[in-house]
Write a structure and sequence with these properties.
alpha+beta, 7 helices, 14% strand, flat
Length: 181
């Protein structure tokens, strides 16, 4: 029962975020079943969102960048990742609540990070076809900062800027170990 309550609450929050994003955005166009929205921002970026209630959307921040949009379109071809996060989180929270043990929540967080980085890399490989999306060479930080950098939902920038990242034979675990050791 805890699982369903947790899932429903997280689902409601996610759909509310989708609604708020749409309300704060300006509609641009609809193309191939995808609605494009504009949001003012200091930075060029975009975000793909698939919603049960609002369909497929791409939110464009600052200005239209074809490379960034290609990455977001690749996300729309993937599994609906936010709902997968909801399932994993709900499972971790409900098991932790039932057993009074925090380990399932911690494991669900690490599982979510690993899956997110997998889907980000998949979108990068489809969108950029072996060429870095980053127009700059990022400096590789200290070991501690590199480890902390891997706790993000995206692989670290200095990894995404490397040629090894776009070699499909190198999996993310290999890149992680090479980076932190």
């Amino acid at each position: 029962m805890t699982f369903f309550i947790t899932f429903f609450l997280l689902f409601a929050i996610l759909e509310l975020q989708n609604f708020i994003n749409i309300r704060k955005s300006t509609f641009l166009k609809e193309e191939e079943g995808v609605k494009y929205w504009f949001r003012d921002s200091k930075y060029v970026n975009a975000r793909a969102r698939k919603s049960v209630f609002f369909g497929k959307n791409i939110f464009i921040y600052k200005r239209y960048d074809e490379r960034v949009i290609a990455h977001e379109k690749a996300h729309l071809e993937q599994i609906n990742f936010p709902y997968l996060i909801l399932l994993i989180s709900s499972l971790g929270i409900s098991i932790s609540f039932t057993t009074m043990d925090p380990i399932p929540v911690v494991l669900s967080v690490f599982c979510t990070i690993a899956l997110s980085q997998h889907y980000e890399r998949d979108a990068d490989l489809k969108a950029y076809k072996g060429k870095s999306m980053f127009p700059f060479s990022s400096n590789r930080p200290t070991r501690l900062r590199r480890i902390i950098g891997w706790l993000d939902m995206h692989p670290p920038t200095w990894i995404r800027d490397s040629d090894e990242y776009y070699n499909k034979e190198n999996d993310l675990f290999y890149l992680f170990v090479r980076d932190v050791i």
